[in-house]
Amino acid sequence: MPETTMVRVDEKQLPRWTRWLDLGDRSLAVLLLAPAAILLSLIIVYPVARLVYTSFFSLSLTSGLPAEFIGFENYTAMFDDPIFWETTWNTVLITLITVPGALFMGLGLALLANLPFSMQWPMRLSLLIPWALPLSFAGLIFAWFFHYEYGVVNDVLNRLGFEGIIWFNSPNWAFAAICLTIIWKTSSFMALMILAGLQTIPRSLYEAADVDGAGKIRQFFEITLPLLKPSIVVALIFRTITALQTFDIPYMMTGGGPGTSTTTLAMYIHQNTVSFLDLGYGSALAVMMFALSMCVTAVYLRIIRTKD
């Protein structure tokens, strides 16, 4: 057999521009990640840094005065503001109610959509409708559902022999109506995330459990639920962050009323920045909401790392 000759090309004979193509693994990784890093810096890092910077200034567009550096005075005023504490508590309470509610409802919907029947697509398609519906539309629809005179909820109560409720005149009933709406709207997202996790569980595990005589309830707690934990944790992270930023549904249903009983922190930020044009104080409020979201995310990530 003829011997194979190896031709070695002298690097000095190559054009100079081709030498830049011979990069190491580290340099190539930096080069490929640079566009994404620049994009994230433009759309995330710079706005957050600008927000923190503005929070240290007295900047009210209605006063006509130039921006003045005041240090932590906006934060001091915020901690002395009773509306800030009320709106923060409303936000936390909405999160504590709607996140577990959406999780349990989403888990049930996902298990129902995963049942082995021939016509699965109508059930799975129905999960997309609440998730795809804009938040403002959902708020308007349920504001009509809970209307005292011609709402569907009071009509059903009257037909069952109960007296209708003036939902939006009572702080407790208005808060309950908002939480029910948010749970309905967000449970489909939880269901889709959990359904994706259910699709990854091998059927052979259930078949082996059937052979061993394990019932459906035992299979759920010993096979389904443990293997769904990663999907559930990821769904909880996204749902909790969006719950802390709740704005559209309570804004469209009650406008924050009666009084400020259903006003969330995001609505209070909107009121100060858009309605009152107090950009300094509004930025300080936004920084606190951002810090709260990051703390919750850090707790979830710590839980995931501990389990791993």
Explain the overall architecture.
The longest helix is centred in the first third of the chain and has 32 residues. The N terminus is likely disordered. It is built from 12 helices and 2 strands, in the order αββααααααααααα. Helices cover about 70% and strands about 0% of the residues. The chain is mainly alpha-helical and about 300 residues long.
Keywords:
308 residues; mainly alpha; flat; disordered N terminus
Given as residue ranges, the uncertain stretches (5+ residues, pLDDT < 50) are 1-7
Terminal Cα separation, in Å? 56 Å
Strand-and-helix sequence, N→C? HEEHHHHHHHHHHH
Percentage of residues assigned to helices: 55-70%
Mean pLDDT over all positions: 86
Q: Can you count the helices? A: 12
Strand content: under 5%
Largest sheet composition = 2 strands, antiparallel
Number of strands: 2
Class derived from helix and strand content: mainly alpha
Radius of gyration: 27 Å
Shape: flat
Question: Strand order of the main beta sheet, please?
Answer: 1-2
